[in-house]
Design goal:
single chain; about 240 residues; mainly alpha; two-stranded parallel ribbon; two-stranded antiparallel ribbon
Amino acid sequence: MRPAFRLLQATVRSGGRYLEPGTPTGLTGLYTHASPRSTLLYLYSSTLDKLKAGVPEHSLYRQSVEALTKHRMSLVESVIPPGYEAWAEKARKLLKEHPERFNVVSSASVDGAAASRVERGGQVFLIRHLPKEEDMRYQEWDGEIDEGPELEGSRSLDEKRDLELLAQRSDMHDSDKVEWESEPQLTAEQVYELEHKIGAGLIEEVVQVAEGELKLVDTMIQAKAWEDLEEKPAEGQWVYFERKA
């Protein structure tokens, strides 16, 4: 059953009405996701890649996770946000013109945020690492002494020359900045439709499950869960749990 607050958000939708990112969903500690579609596609693609690379095909774990992941991925891909085709064409053009700007490079930035270009299952994803905003009131004092306001009056020629150079200096990273637009949002109607098709709660809950599944793959690979037990179970040990036809 969908939380009442999210249900209220869905009932007021009209035409191109969107859910506001960061607003409460009605579930404690869970807030409206800004880009659930692209996030899910990236998580599902990463999960499939890890399964293919680290888990043998005969593993029942791989078979079941692949089946569920591919099913949900197809549902997500079927819901296209308004204006997506125009945005995708512009994004492909930008990636082609500035390939060096979308690699894991400290100086590369997109709207001031470091970015990395990742390919998953034939699709290209741009991962933006937004800098964390910090409140200066909670920053530790660096020991610098406040020398008061800048002194007034005449200056020497060397001081004036230094000030002129400082005023003319430009941002070193201006040439690395690229204007990047985020993927268009799904409408409230599309979010509701996708949640109904998946049938696993709010889209934000689906994202959380996908994140957990991606982490679980690493644990299963490390444990090699598909291999036989070192200690064989005793005869009839699991008979009690079998379902009789």
